[in-house]
Amino acid sequence: MSEYPTIPIREFEEFVNVVRRLRKDCPWDREQTHQSIRHSLVEECYEVVEALDENNLEELQRELGDLLLHIIMHATIAEQAKEFSLSDILRHISEKLIRRHPHVFGSLHTSDIEEVKHNWENLKMAEGRNSVLDGIPKHLPALQRAGRVQERAAKVGFDWDAKDDVWLKVTEEAEEFRQALASGNEKHAEEEFGDYLFALVNYARFENINPENALRATVEKFTRRFQFVEDEFRKQGKDIHSSSLEEMDGFWNSAKKNGY
Question: Which domain holds residue 157?
Answer without folding.
Answer: 142-209
